[in-house]
Amino acid sequence: MPFRDQLEKKITADKLTARVARTLRDTDSGVSFDRAAMRQLLVMGPYRYVHERDTDLYVQETPSGDGPIIVLDNGLPIYDTIIEDVLLRKSPTVKEMVSKENPDEKYHK
Questions:
Q1: How far apart are CA 108 and CA 85, in angstroms?
Q2: What is the pLDDT of residues 72-90, one digit of tens each?
Q3: Which single residue of 1, 11, 78, 90 has CA 20 to 30 Å from 99?
Q4: How far is CA 13 from CA 18, 27, 50, 54, 78, in A?
């Protein structure tokens, strides 16, 4: 990638970071921020976008496979597990909520 393109990408990332930082607010339900800017910032980095159920996930791609998962919601939590486990925590189905098996035994890396 030419130097000019790298510089433009860096300037764009700096502007997006500043916009997210300016809009960061504590609320009763967590943290509020500019989701569109945060989404663009995550896509610029080493994250792969995954939309499952009603949840926006960003999975960090590493040489050894999938890495930490960032959930784009009020708290912007980071999970170091698999996508199915994150979905069980953030957006469970009725079947998962009434399941008798231990979810910790089911989802392991």
A1: 9
A2: 887 788 999 888 888 888 8
A3: 78
A4: 9, 26, 21, 27, 20
Two structure tokens written together for 27: 């609320």
The CA radius of gyration of the chain, in Å to the nearest whole number, is 17
For CA atoms 32, 36, 39, 40, the dihedral sign is negative
Q: What angle do CA 38, 44, 47 make, to 5 degrees?
A: 85
73 neighbors 30 (Cβ within 8 angstroms): yes
Q: How many CB atoms lie within 10 A of CB 57?
A: 21
Q: Do residues 23 and 33 lie in contact, with contact meaning Cβ atoms separated by under 8 Å?
A: yes
Q: Please, is 69 exposed, middle or buried when counting C-beta atoms within 10 Å of its C-beta (0-12, 13-18, 19+)? A: buried
CA distance linking residue 91 with residue 97, whole number of Å: 10
**0.90 exceeded by pTM:** no
